[in-house]
Amino acid sequence: MLDLLPDPMREPTVLAIPFFVTMLAIEWFAAYKLEESDDDGRAPKGAYEKRDARASLSMGVVSIATSAAWKLLGLLVYTAIFAYLAPWHLPVTAWYTWVIAFLGVDFLFYWSHRVSHRVRLVWATHQAHHSSEYFNFATALRQKWNISAALVMWLPLPLLGVPPALVFAAYSLNLVYQFWIHTERIDKMWRPFEFVFNTPSHHRVHHGSDPEYLDRNYAGTLIIWDRLFGSFAPETHRPTYGLTKPVGTYNIVKLQTHEYASIARDVRGAASWRARLGYVFGPPGWAPASVAGAGATGTEAVESGDGRVSAPS
């Protein structure tokens, strides 16, 4: 069957589109029929809001094109590194090469994801994925348009002899896995599975804007990275989804770019180079002591501009 498809359509995320559409339809139907809500009056679990879902799907469609462009650039760089700098070349047909590629991508995805929550300039590329106040399969497709940080993070893989094509294949499989964990329809799963793998329960925590959930559960496929590196948090209550300071728009261009504008505004108003660098490379919400107010330090995080408020760095 793959031989019948043109090369661009053999990419795993493209092949998975029928699965995405089917699961979206099933979950939407369930949300329509089962409108249970929490006692606090919030939206029903797994609910769909038409404008929000349309924005998520639109961002997903655009991300296919933007990711392809970034991947083409990455492929050129990775190929040069693989061909001229790698001390050995792992065979593309060997099973262990695929295992190394998948585990390597998943491990580096964890760190790339963690950096994207701790460095404001990188957060600007990622925050759109967190901007929905709903948590459903449509939110899974609310993808970023700039994957440059991830491409930089994966540079060790071709340098260690992993074929560039396998790097991108492993990343696509990682993204396909992450689709199904964006739902409130699945409660906690079998405990051994919950211990090793990322699940809907773990990822609901990651999308929560509650203080106890911020900057937790960065995993792609394996939650063991969070357990090993101290960023794991269990789900103890239903999260409040979205950014700590909602953007208040369904315009997909603004959703993708508003944090860049906020960074530029803060940098223009900064009184020193230290403050300018802090606004760009500090955690989301960072502000100098003069802005943070009495009792703050130069590295303390306070709400400033659009974004999630991170813990002190």
Break the fold down into its secondary structure elements and pairings:
Elements: H1 12-15, H2 17-33, H3 50-84, H4 95-118, H5 120-126, H6 137-140, H7 148-153, H8 156-159, H9 164-179, H10 191-196, H11 200-206, H12 224-229, H13 252-269, H14 273-281, H15 289-292
- Estimated helix fraction: 40-55%
What structural class do the secondary elements suggest? mainly alpha
- The topology string of helices and strands comes to HHHHHHHHHHHHHHH
β-strand amount: under 5%
Global morphology = globular
- Mean pLDDT metric: 87
Which segments are poorly predicted (pLDDT under 50) over 5 or more consecutive residues? 294-306, 309-313
Cα gyration radius (Å): 20 Å
- Main β-sheet: number of strands, strand sense, barrel status? none
Ends distance: 50 Å
The total of beta strands comes to 0
Q: Helical region count?
A: 15
Keywords:
313 residues; disordered C terminus; mainly alpha
Q: Care to describe what's here?
A:
It is a single chain. The protein is 53% helix and 0% strand. The protein has 313 residues and is an all-alpha fold. α4 (95-118) crosses α5 (120-126). The termini are far apart. Mean pLDDT is 87; it is low at 294-306 and 309-313.
What would a concise description of this structure say?
The protein is mainly α and about 325 residues long.
